[in-house]
Amino acid sequence: MNPTIKVEQVNKSFSKKAVLEDVSLTIEKGQLYGLIGPSGAGKTTLVKMIVGMEKADSGTIQVLDKKMPNLAILQEIGYMAQSDALYAELTGEENLKFFASLYKLNKKDQKNRIAYAASLVNLTDDLKKRVSAYSGGMKRRLSLAIALIQDPKILILDEPTVGIDPALKISIWNELMRLKTEEDKTIIVTTHVMDEAERCDYVAMVRDGRIITSGSPAALKEQYQVTHFDEVFLKAGVKHHENPGAH
Amino acid sequence: MRIRALIKRICQQMLRDKRTLALMFVAPLLILTLMYFLFNGNNVDPKLGVVGIDESLVRILKKADIKVEKLDQAESSTVVERDLDGLLQQDNGKMELTLQNDDPTKAKGLQAKVNQAVASLAQANLIQKNPALAGMTAPQMDIDYVYGDKDTVFFDVLSPILVGFFVFFFVFIISGIGLLRERTTGTLERLMSTPIRRAEIIIAYLTGYGIFAVIQTIIVVLYAINVLDIVLVGSIFHVILINLLLALVALSLGILLSSFAASEFQMMQFIPIAVIPQVFFAGIFPLEGMAEWLQAFAKVMPMYYAGDALKGVMYRGAGLSEISGDLLALGIFAVIFITLNIFALKKYRTL
Questions:
Q1: I need a labelling partner for A27 at 20 to 30 A (CA). Which of A236, B37, B48, B78 fits?
Q2: pLDDT 10s digits, B82-121
């Protein structure tokens, strides 16, 4: 079976500055894939390309066997942006309803999905409040709920747990695990928090627009002979910089 | 379906934003009312000081709505000291008029009135000396007006343009900032990660804000005609039709220009560039007197066509066939801007 997401030799530069260089990766169905790296590494650009919001200068991106950008495939991708893109004048419920109605969902499904997504992120009691009255964490949670609204096969979450308190962070991660195992969803998470990266099935470390190393967390620890996952990143980074061909 | 969802959301947002609503619906009425009173103010009679002027001339001057102040003697400083608009002196049969000229229009008016008075006095004297001339001098003149009547004031010509301009201005600002906010808050990018098409976003924006533009247009037009009693010779439906087309142009232009603005402040910077020049070419100043290149410039201004059509319908009573050229021009502007808009969104997604 073909992989769910296939990125091949993608290059991208903004005003002559290379943001992504020769990035290739494959993500299998049902995988929880972590993109880790410092801010500015190119993680967001990469996920935006997978969603089809950025165009690659060269290389191809396939999602569910379709070349991106593709409007029909967007129905199957739930995307949570790094910044909370919400309508502050509207209530949480109106935000959910609005995004739900952009996808093909019938009235009944729409209602069920809104109730499910809201309860998942503990926002059921706050749905009638306007988003302008929400705290930073609540907005983040609402963004996540919106990403889940159309029950997509693929979830792409850009820094999903920034600004969320530890208890909720754990419950969100548990839910991601459940979505992965029970509903067989393919999930991409970008993060710079190492303990989150360690929960992924597979991680790719991104630095300066390149994937410097990738593998399952356990395999990476073994490869770099370290006990803590943080050290993998440090060692991989050093190796990358020592390589004269890298720059 | 997606378009409907987007329209519904735009309406929800607008209805929550009471101040913007007020700006859109109340502000034009306020300004229009203010302009109405400003232009319909009564003219103040000019004050003329006279020294050594014949009583018969004074009588004629008074009849011509001039406040005459008799002085024993005066010099040019008296004009300023007594705040006179002019000073008429007669010395040895020679007349001398000194004008304050702090307001050239007023000074010219006074000059004309004085000239007329002097001339009619001379004429009366002539007839008195030689009654046979009576029939030969200037006969009574009847004045007919093709448009308007003797009570027509500048505001009657100006008001159709103002109505159009307010529709243009407020729709431009509100729709432009509406889409700009969508850009700056990241929701536009978020929208692009859903299966919505670029054209759907533009259509929804045009319709969503269009609904408010329609309501605004109708309120402004009805208010101007029924409350301010602005001259309307032609059909009110034609007036509304012109304004709706103009609103569509303003909408699409506002949305388009918002893609070149990074903030609300930058959006405001488009006002002196894209909005104010429109006023100059809307027909307030006669186009014929302009330099040729300036006339060509006017032809690329949507307000030029709207102003022409509105003036035509409201003041001259033009019918649909007479304004069809203007309507077509406005339609072309709208189509161009809408197409450019769909391309401008390509920056977010190619589909």
A1: A236
A2: 888 888 888 877 888 888 888 888 888 888 888 888 888 8
Amino acid at B283: G
CA end-to-end distance (rounded Å), chain A: 36
- Asked if B195's CB is within 8 angstroms of A71's CB, the reply is yes
Give this complex's ipTM.
0.83
Q: Which of B4, B16, B193 sits opposite A53 (nearest CB)?
A: B193
Chain A residue closest in CA terms to B194: A74
Chain center to CA of B232:
15
Largest CA distance in chain A: 59
DSSP summary character for residue B290: S
pLDDT of residue A245: 45
Please tell me whether residue A106 adopts helix, strand or coil conformation: coil
First to last CA, chain B: 18
Report the DSSP beta bridge partners of residue B69.
Answer: B49
| Alpha helices by DSSP H, B193-273 | 198-222, 236-258, 264-268, 270
pTM of the complete model: 0.80
Q: Give the one of B5, B348, B349 whose C-beta lies nearest to A98's C-beta.
A: B5
Instruction: Answer whether residue A140 is part of any domain.
Output: no
Number of independent structural domains in chain A: 1
**Using CB atoms, which residue from B12, B16, B196 is nearest to A102?**
B196
- Taking the C-alpha atoms of residue B14 and residue B211, their distance in angstroms, rounded to an integer, is 11
Question: Which chain A residues touch B if contact means CB-CB below 8 Å?
Answer: 51-53, 55, 69-72, 74-75, 77, 79, 81, 83-90, 94, 98-99, 101-103, 130
**DSSP code of B137?**
S
Can you tell me the distance from the alpha carbon of A130 to that of A89, in angstroms, rounded to the nearest whole number? 6
Residue A159 tokens, joined: 């820094």
Task: Domains for chain B: give ranges and CATH numbers.
Answer: 2-36+150-347 (no CATH), 47-132 (3.40.190)
Residue at A164 is within a domain: no
Give the range of the structural domain holding residue A60, as residue numbers without chain letter: 1-76+188-247
Residue with token string 């906010």? B181
Q: Show residues of chain A in contact with B187, CB under 8 Å.
A: 85-87
CB hemisphere CA count around B184 (13 angstroms) = 16
B261-271 residues labelled b (16+ CB within 10 A) or e (exposed)? beeeeebeebe
Q: Give the full edge-to-edge strand order of the sheet including B86-91.
A: B67-70, B47-51, B86-91, B94-99
Q: What are phi and psi of B30, to 5 degrees?
A: -60, -50
Residues of B in contact with A53 (CB under 8 A): 189, 192-193, 348-349
Summarised one tens digit per residue, pLDDT across range B12-47 is 999 998 888 888 889 989 988 888 888 776 677 888
Is A132 within 8 Å of A89 (Cβ atoms)? Answer: yes
Give the CATH number of the domain where residue A17 resides. 3.40.50.300
8 Å CB contact between A99 and B194 = yes
